[in-house]
Amino acid sequence: xxxxxxxxxxxxxxxxxxxxxxxxxxxxxxxxxxxxxxxxxxxxxxxxxxxxxxxxxxxxxxxxxxxxxxxxxxxxxxxxxxxxxxxxxxxxxxxxxxxxxxxxxxxxxxxxxxxxxxxxxxxxxxxxxxxxxxxxxxxxxxxxxxxxxxxxxxxxxxxxxxxxxxxxxxxxxxxxxxxxxxxxxxxxxxxxxxxxxxxxxxxxxxxxxxxxxxxxxxxxxxxxxxxxxxxxxxxxxxxxxxxxxxxxxxxxxxxxxxxxxxxxxxxxxxxxxxxxxxxxxxxxxxxxxxxxxxxxxxxxxxxxxxxxxxxxxxxxxxxxxxxxxxxxxxxxxxxxxxxxxxxxxxxxxxxxxxxxxxxxxxxxxxxxxxxxxxxxxxxxxxxxxxxxxxxxxxxxxxxxxxxxxxxxxxxxxxxxxxxxxxxxxxxxxxxxxxxxxxxxxxxxxxxxxxxxxxxxxxxxxxxxxxxxxxxx
Length: 472
What we know:
- With about 475 residues, the chain is of the alpha+beta class.
- It has 3 domains: about 10-100, Uridine Diphospho-n-acetylenolpyruvylglucosamine Reductase, domain 2 (2-Layer Sandwich), CATH 3.30.43; about 105-215, Uridine Diphospho-n-acetylenolpyruvylglucosamine Reductase, domain 3, CATH 3.30.465.10; about 220-435, 3-Layer(aba) Sandwich (Vanillyl-alcohol Oxidase, Chain A, domain 3), CATH 3.40.462.20.
- The chain has 14 helices and 19 strands.
- It has helices at about 10-25, 35-40, 60-75, 125-130, 150-155, 160-165, 190-200, 235-245, 285-295, 315, 340-350, 400-415, 435-440, 445-455; strands at about 30, 55, 80, 95-100, 105-110, 115-120, 135, 170-175, 185, 205-215, 215, 220-230, 250-260, 275-280, 305, 310, 330-335, 360-365, 390-395.
- Strands 12, 13, 14, 15, 16, 17, 18 and 19 form an 8-stranded antiparallel beta sheet that branches. It has a 5-stranded antiparallel beta sheet with strand order 5-6-10-8-9.
- The longest helix is centred in the N-terminal third of the chain and has 17 residues, at about 10-25.
- It is globular and about 70 Å long.
- The chain starts with 7 loop residues before the first helix and ends in a 16-residue tail after the last helix.
C-alpha cells in the first residue's frame, strides 16, 4: 500500500530538516523517490520489510553529526546501519531516518603497537583482511560479512574467544556521536562510564564512528569442519561437553546440529542428510592442533568427512559466507548455556530432527576460557560464567517458508530454554521477545546501563535496538 500522506503542519519541520541535511551532506541522501531506494533499504534478513523515510549514507563523522541532529530535530525515529547484518532488521526503521555508515569502511593497522583503528561501517572481512597482512587479528565472528560495529557493541565472540576473550575485551577506545550531536572519545580514562556501557550494551548510547582494537598475533591456523552422521549426535554432544573444559584455549570449537546442504562442495552422497558438526580452529601448527583434538576425536565415531587443514585466519573467517547470502528468510533465538545435561541433549536431538529446511541450524559457541577471567561487572556483557552462547536459526530462501521456520525456531527454543541461564547474546535476539528478555540479556548490569543511558541519551533517541530505557 502507498504511504499515507503526513499532515502538512507536522510534515513541514521534517521536510526542512531533511532538506538541510541534503544540502550539507558529503555522502548521499536517498529518499523514496530515488531509483536506488529499494536496493538501499533492503535488509540482510529477507523476512523483514521496512520503508524508511530517508537513508543518509554518511561519508565521514561530520555527516553522522549532521544526520543525528537532523533526525532529532525532525522528531524522526533513527536507526543505525553499519554492516547491515542485523538479524531482526534493527538497522532500519519505517517512516524514519536510517543513518548508514556502510561507506565508512576504513581500517588502519599499527603493526608496532598492534592496534587497529576501524571505522563504524567496516565488516569483519575488512578488518581480517587488513590485520591479516601483518599476521594479526581480533577475536570476532565467524562470517566475514558481519558488521564489526554491531558485533562489537553486543559483545562479540568467535574462534579466538577461548584464548583472547570477547571482541569487547580487545576494545581500547571508541569515537561516538551522541544524541545531542556532540562527539566524544570513550576509553578507560575518558567517559569511562560510556566506555563500560559500549562493551556489551549495544547501540543504545550513540553512533560509534570508529573503534580502536588491540590485536593479537595470529597467522596460519589449523581449521575446518568435521562432519558426522547426526545419528551419533548424542555421543558427540556428551563427549564434546566433557572435553571442552580441559581443551587448550588455543582450540576454538563450536558444535552444530544441521543438515548437509545439497550443493557443492559437499559430498553428493550426504546431501540433505542430518549432521552433527564440529567446527574447529586451532591457533597454531597442525601437529599441535591434531594433538589437542585427539582426546575428543579418538572417542568419537568415524566422521563423514574431515576438512581440517592449515589456512590463513581470514580464510576460516570467510568459509561460510557463500552459504548465507543476503535476502534469505531468518528467524533466530538465543540463550546463554552453562551446562549441557543429558536431558538437554535429548531435547536438542528431538527438535533438531524436526528442522523444516536444510539451512536451519543450532550452534553452541564456546565462551569459556579467557571470557571467564573478566569479572561480570567490568563490562556491560554480564554473563561471564556461561560455557556457550547458543543460537537456533530457522533459515530458508523461500518467503513461503517464513512461518514454518519461525514456528520451528520458537518450539526448539521453548524446549531447551529451561536448561539455559535465561539471558541471551543480544545479537541472537529478535525484535518480538519483549522487555523481560532484554533485561535478562544484560542481567545485573541492566540498572547501571539505564543510568548511563539517562546521562548520554535521556530522551531515548537511539531506541531502534535491543532497547535500554533511561533510568527515571
